[in-house]
């Protein structure tokens, strides 16, 4: 039934929405840091973390499905080709940003005499970036221009063992996947209760392998399903309304709802449990959007697909663009004040981020992606 899917409709749109939530999160973080009018106190502008969690679920889902499909069609999995495809998709833009954030931008700021001080030096962080451990830079040096790269490192570590796992231990795939989820859940419990060293706890918190593993379980379930999703109660109209209500409230009003009623405290704030509920809801969203013919929201639109196609660039470039705009226009934005400055600010950064990402996709990323098709 679902063994030969070539394209999952609507997922490009979801990818863009998640990337833009990260943009909103960091835009308000930077505006607050520079004492501009900001909206950081509102829930809607604090969803960067859960947006990245969505990316992890989506990655686990798509990568696992492709591995399942490859094994079915070729009776094997080429780990070499798998790694080459990931390298060609991720490494060029990743290392370009590393070059910009560790060398070019610090040099440019020094040349123009700006008093912004990078929280790290090139020699202090380069090995973390080269060996895909950018999350260590976040842990040791706090907020910085390359902060979003931490999730790329997590995904690369996941890819490193996921393909060999399915190639050599396919008969135990479900058991190992469930074991990863259980183990990480136990570790999250230990983290919450202060049972681990602070640095170790920070690293484990960022290694969200449970989100990718749950995405993988969803792909496995879909791949082996013999009936359409449309008739399943989990994708009925009442169920859709319930899950969408939960997601909308979580994204837009969780700060207000927490403490208002015990049900919201449990859904949104329960340690260990609430994150798993959200991850499962994200997996449902992926399946419902791409596979349910009766889905309430149809997201397979041309303009959304375009924005989804450049979402990797949106995610990677946005911090540099936001910082640059604040650096250049801080006085102007302060002079406008209030909501007018917010509207002007978002019109400018959104336009520039989209243009930069589109140009990057066409002239920098696509040449590597054309090579990727050979593998």
List the helices and strands and how they pair.
Layout: H1 11-33, H2 48-74, H3 79-111, H4 122-130, H5 134-141, H6 150-168, H7 173-192, H8 198-206, H9 209-223, H10 237-257, H11 262-269, H12 273-291, H13 302-309, H14 311-336, H15 338-372
Can you offer a commentary on this structure?
There is one protein chain. The protein has 375 residues and is mainly alpha-helical. The chain has one domain (12-372). Helix content is 75%, strand content 0%. It has 15 helices and no strands. α2 (48-74) packs across α12 and α3 (79-111) crosses α15.
Looking at this protein, list some descriptive labels:
globular, mainly alpha, 375 residues
Number of strands: 0
- Count of individual helical segments: 15
N/C terminus separation: 26 Å
Beta-strand content bin: under 5%
Q: Using the CA coordinates, give the radius of gyration.
A: 21 Å
Helix content: over 70%
- Overall tally of domains: 1
Q: Tell me, briefly, the overall form.
A: globular
Describe the oligomeric state of these chains in a short phrase. single chain
The run of helices and strands is HHHHHHHHHHHHHHH
Low-confidence stretches: none
Average pLDDT confidence is 92
Structural class by secondary-structure content: mainly alpha
Task: Provide a concise account of the structure shown.
This protein is 75% helix and 0% strand. It is mainly alpha-helical and 375 residues long.
